[in-house]
Specification:
The complex is a heterodimer of chains A (218) and B (257). By secondary structure, chain A is mostly helical. Chain A has 10 helices and no strands. Chain A has one domain. In chain A, helix 2 packs parallel to helix 6. The radius of gyration of chain B is 21 Å and the shape is globular. The chains are: A mainly alpha (218), B mainly alpha (257). Chains A and B meet through helix 8, helix 9 and helix 10 of A and helix 5 and helix 6 of B.
Chain lengths: 218, 257
């Protein structure tokens, strides 16, 4: 398992592109927002938590089609499926690798982009906490979507159509935590809900992803 | 007849030939009764019920809005059930019925959203509000779109049936989750369930109760929509079965010729 994780991380770092692209996309989305809604700092500070969450979600989505497609193309996915490691673990490791290379950098970058959008001071810690809790769910759900569309020639667009509705609960609760945190309100309820969603998806969805992957590898 | 024998009798319809024969025999019945129910219910509702004292004649859109919304949800439940049957017992008719139902569900969701907007404009002063019920229907619509898109995208029919079934199961969980998440996220403009609710039917709750004058034609419309849905699903499933047969015949011809 650790070997697989290290392999995926090495591939993400060395094969170029994939690792930095998500971050660059996040940056660009954040920079484009003031151009589209105007530079009033009061408006920007109200929408900042939601925009940052949406940007992180889209950046996460952008990197999903590479998650399994490369392994599918060169056949290493077949090898992994026949390996003694259960496919559920493979899928979990893949999601973990995706989170380490996409989700975690987004979490770390979010406060700096928050400065650009005039995020109120109490919002920073809540933004980081909510993203830290929410991005694993996004990786796991995304892995399920990637497993569904792995055999398709043009799976990219379909992948976003399938995955975005699944992101709705995570986005609602995550953005709510960040918004309430920025407004100085209590955040316990949405935070617990977000944590619950993440825990449940991490625990259950790998089984669905593995089942789907087995169908696709048949 | 014992229960197991009855259960076996149900599974007989997994045979496409048997399914087609029976569905063709009962289809005219469903078409005619649904047409009668809808014509009588809609005429009764539109022309022979008084205007509401607050809402005027706009209340009459209820005869399309409520049945369509009900069927939009029940269609997804039916797809969930048939997907489960496909995953467990691998009856092709079941998978094809789920496939056949999805576009009907899309249309029902669209009717519900459109009539809701037309009703909301005079009543709430807006076509659209980010109300939990409205929002969750929009999300349901997105789920339907993804489901149909996945069916269309995969060439191998068995793989497509498997993948869409899993998507339907996972999607159901997330759709339910979204339904309650949006409840948390915004307060509602839409009234609560006021038709099929014990307090509303027995008259204990008079505030949001649908008066009997409106309720009887509405019930007729609901029955009409249910029958129409069954007829459409039978009809479309038959089409899917025949389409697959044609594909098989063509493939056989190509191999032999």
């Amino acid at each position: 398992m650790i070997a697989l994780l290290l392999r995926d991380l090495k591939l993400a770092f060395r094969a170029g592109g994939g690792f930095g692209l998500g971050l660059a996309f996040f940056l660009i989305v954040t920079v484009l927002v003031p151009f589209s809604v105007g530079p009033q700092s009061s408006l920007l500070s109200t929408i900042a938590p939601g925009v940052l969450w949406l940007g992180a979600l889209l950046a996460c989505l952008l990197s999903l089609d590479r998650l399994l497609a490369l392994d599918w193309e060169d056949g290493s996915l077949d090898l992994l499926a026949t390996a003694p490691l259960p496919l559920e673990s493979v899928v979990t490791i893949k999601a973990l690798a995706h989170w380490l290379t996409t989700g975690l950098p987004l979490v770390l970058a979010a406060p700096f982009l928050g400065v650009l959008l005039n995020l109120p001071a109490p919002g920073f810690s809540w933004l980081v906490i909510s993203l830290l809790l929410g991005t694993p769910a996004m990786s796991v759900i995304g892995t399920f979507g990637a497993a569904l569309t792995v055999g398709l020639k043009r799976g990219g667009l379909l992948l976003s159509l399938l995955v975005l509705p699944l992101y709705v609960p995570t986005l609602i609760f995550g953005a709510e935590v960040a918004r309430r945190g920025a407004a100085g309100m209590e955040t316990q309820t949405p935070l617990l809900m977000l944590a619950g969603i993440t825990a449940a998806t991490v625990a259950l969805l790998p089984f669905a992803s593995a089942a789907v992957l087995r169908i696709n590898l048949r | 007849m014992s229960i197991t024998a009855k259960a076996n009798a149900l599974w007989e319809y997994a045979n496409p030939r048997k399914f087609l024969a029976t569905s063709e025999r009962v289809l005219p019945f469903f078409w005619i009764t649904s047409a009668v129910c809808l014509v009588v219910g809609l005429t009764w509702g539109f022309f022979f019920t008084p205007d509401d004292y607050k809402q005027g004649s706009t209340v009459k859109i209820i005869y399309l809005h409520v049945p369509a919304s009900l069927m939009a949800i029940n269609c997804w439940l039916m797809m969930l059930a048939t997907s489960l049957v496909w995953l467990v017992r691998r009856h092709h008719v079941s998978a094809l019925a789920a496939r056949a139902a999805a576009p009907i569900g899309i249309v029902m969701t669209l009717i519900s959203l459109a009539t809701g907007a037309i009703w909301g404009q005079p009543m709430w002063g807006t076509w659209w509000a980010w109300d939990p019920r409205l929002t969750s229907f929009l999300i349901l619509f997105l789920f339907y779109l993804g489901y149909v898109a996945l069916w269309e995208a995969i060439e191998d029919p068995d793989t497509a049936a498997d993948l869409t079934s899993v998507l339907c199961l996972v999607g159901s969980v997330f759709a339910l989750l979204s339904r309650y998440a949006v409840n948390f996220w915004n307060q509602g403009l839409h009234q609560g369930a006021s038709v099929m609710r014990a307090a509303a039917v027995t008259g204990a709750d008079t505030e949001e109760k649908v008066s009997n004058i409106y309720f009887y034609p509405l019930l007729l419309c609901i029955v009409g929509f249910v029958l129409l849905f069954i007829a459409l699903v039978f009809y479309r499933t038959g089409t899917e079965i025949r389409a697959r047969r044609i594909k098989a015949l063509l493939a056989r011809e190509r191999v032999s010729g």
